[in-house]
Amino acid sequence: MATTTPAFKALSALLTYPTPALIAVLPEIKSLVAAQGRTAEGLLRPLLNDLTGRDLYDLQEGYVDLFDRGRRTSLHLFEHVHGESRDRGQAMVDLAAHYETAGLSLAVNELPDYLPLFLEFLSTRPEDEARALLGETAAILATLEERLAKRSSLYAPIFTLLLALAGDGATAGEPAEDAEPADDLASLDADWEEAAVTFGPGTPGDGCSVDRLRTRLRAERRDARHGAV
After folding, report:
1. Structural domain tally of the chain?
2. What torsion do the CA atoms of 63, 69, 71, 74 make, to the nearest 10 degrees?
3. What DSSP line would sit under 137-149, residue for residue?
4. Which candidate in 55, 87, 177, 224 could, as Cys together with 80 as Cys, close a disulfide (CB 3.0–4.6 Å)?
5. Alpha carbon distance 145, 160 (integer Å)
6. Which Gene3D superfamilies does the record match to this protein (predicted)?
7. What is the pLDDT of residue 191?
């Protein structure tokens, strides 16, 4: 993979809700993916073909079923760390402030911890910084990759590629023990009693530095894995 910036932008787009606008830019996304090499192109070809060839309403229904109807495969990073605790609200504020400090403005309806948005943010950062920050979410990414693969989802290879992009910057997490309980709501709720992760704006002394941001991300590498039942 030659550069991270186009890869982050392409993967961010592929993880968004399927819309006519997304379908319209698929040729451009395919070109960006092809530029990353044969491995990336081969891994993503089934998803790209599916997005190109299937009815849009079917794509949208499948996306909602996969990502929006439960926490186990949620694309909101803090779901896998804070659940519905109060800490998540402050973490959202801190992350939004960090985006704004870096010059990324949020739309009214966007949550800062939405993975496609995080990837869009990374696409604006220097390569070393982007890889390092992505690496701090490796435990969440690996857990999502495993859960999606067990469902034979065409989205799973995106997480394989994200982990590859993180490379040496990826922080190790404990292996997920993912038994995928069917409809045990009590078990699902219990999954998310996890430790705090926050992002912070300001100077290196008050939370905006890359090192501080990485430190605050690190808590998830254990807690997200322990959230797998």
Report:
1. 1
2. 20
3. THHHHHHHHHHHH
4. 224
5. 7
6. TorD-like (1.10.3480.10)
7. 41
**What range does the domain containing 16 cover?**
5-226
pTM of whole model > 0.90?
no
* Nearest Cα residue to 79 out of 177, 69, 120: 69
CA distances from 38 to 14, 33, 35, 76, 153 (A): 18, 9, 8, 29, 20
Which residues, including other chains, have CB under 8 Å from residue 13's CB and lie 6 or more apart? 22, 25, 29, 116
Q: What is the pLDDT of residue 186?
A: 43
**Residue 165, pLDDT above cutoff 70:** yes
Q: Measuring CA to CA, which residue among 174, 182, 206, 218 is closest to residue 97?
A: 206
Check if the beta carbon of residue 157 is closer than 8 Å to that of residue 126: no
pLDDT tens sequence across 42-77: 999 999 999 999 999 999 999 999 999 878 899 988
Burial of 134 (0-12, 13-18, 19+ CB in 10 A): buried
How far is residue 34 from each of residues 26, 150, 185, 204, measured CA to CA in Å? 12, 26, 41, 38
